[in-house]
Amino acid sequence: MKINMLVIVAFSFLIAARSLPVKQTLNYESIFNFGDSLSDTGNFLISSDVSSPSIGRPPYGQTFFNRSTGRCSDGPEANGLPYVIPYLQSVRTNFSVDFNKGANFAVAGATANDFNFLKERGLSVTLLTNKTLDVQLDWFKKLKPSLCKTKPDCDQYFKKSLFFVGEIGGNDYNYPLLAFRSYKHAIDLVPSVINKIINVTSALIEEGAVTLVVPGNLPIGCSAVLLERFSDDNRWLYDTRNHCLKPLNNIAKLHNTKLQEGLVTLRQKYTHAKIIYADYYGSAMQFFNSPSKYGFTGSVLKACCGGEDGRYNAKPNVRCGGKGSTTCENPSTYANWDGIHLTEAAYRHIATGLISGRFTKPSLSNSSSFSKF
């Protein structure tokens, strides 16, 4: 089975890929995804202790299905992509689940750092889930024997598999920031977050992964809920071009710089592997800097879905889908969906930038990067 590369990258955002212009075909037969709410397709809903999480209710999923699907946006899974089953589906069902085409281990709210690490720093009470990146790696290791039996079999199988390691780490910063901790508290977590991502990426390569996409962090200084939380009259804190908060975006920039440095080390160690950095930050900043050029006539900084009071429609006490929340008439004209996540339209533009090769290292559009496929 050949999977359209356009659809593969779009998968990580769970968007409708049919509108993306660039098409490349590679012989990947399975996809394994690790991460958080940017790519969760149902694991949080299955594992949550909350009887009715907001992402399990409208208006989530309204743009395409007119119903919620467990995805943290208004859009669906990528159109045309074979359904990548959430790993915990195997726990919920009494029937056997076929993971030969891949599995999604991502869980909304997941962190890169482990639970005890965050607990020691007084953040455990704010966590939505304890299904951290290490837990997701353990799930993969448990699943692996059902996918291949011998090393030659596994080598052959994983040579035709694509791995997404993230986006992950954003919640490690969101939790302290939303808990009224300082910028410094969040930025001090960068080394541990990067170390965890690099270690898990290395572990996956040791397990047989050959081609891995490792995304960086999004521009969190443009996140409506954090803009609301850190709203300040000091104009020097804001970028004059896009009105995002510079100190918050500096956290994301540091994260991305250190992540790329770590990936360079991995490429030197695993010369046979294809490790691709996906610059979510750079691709997203295109529409934050020039919103009208990308069709965002409503707002790029104000949430489409949330409480109407406040500068950014993102008061933490009124969640999208909850009591008192409202939804904008046309989400495609907004970039921010619920204050934390972006709209399907925004994710589509980010994916377009990635597919073009401008925001991936090495470029996804460079066929020589995939000469063995």
Please describe what this structure looks like.
InterPro entries: GDSL, SGNH_hydro_sf, SGNH_plant_lipase-like. Belongs to the 'GDSL' lipolytic enzyme family. Keywords: Glycoprotein, Hydrolase, Signal. GO terms for molecular function: hydrolase activity, acting on ester bonds. Residues 1-19 form the signal peptide. The chain is an alpha/beta fold. It has a single domain, classed as SGNH hydrolase (Rossmann fold, 3-Layer(aba) Sandwich). Helices cover 35% and strands 9% of the residues. The chain has 13 helices and 10 strands. The chain has a 6-stranded mixed β-sheet with strand order 4-3-5-6-7-10. Strands 1-2 form a two-stranded antiparallel ribbon. Strands 8-9 form a two-stranded antiparallel sheet. Helix 1 packs across helix 13 and helix 5 runs parallel beside helix 9.
Order of strands across the main sheet: 4-3-5-6-7-10
**Integer average pLDDT:** 83
Which regions are unreliable across 5 or more consecutive residues at pLDDT < 50? 1-25, 61-81, 366-373
CATH topology value: Rossmann fold
Indicate the structural class. alpha/beta
Give the helices and strands as they follow along the chain. Answer: EHEEHHEHHHEHHHEHHEHEEHE
- Taken together, the total number of domains comes to 1
CATH superfamily: SGNH hydrolase
Kindly estimate the percentage of residues that lie in beta strands according to DSSP.
5-15%
Percent helix, as a range, is 25-40%
Please tell me how large the radius of gyration is.
19 Å
Alpha plus pi helix count: 13
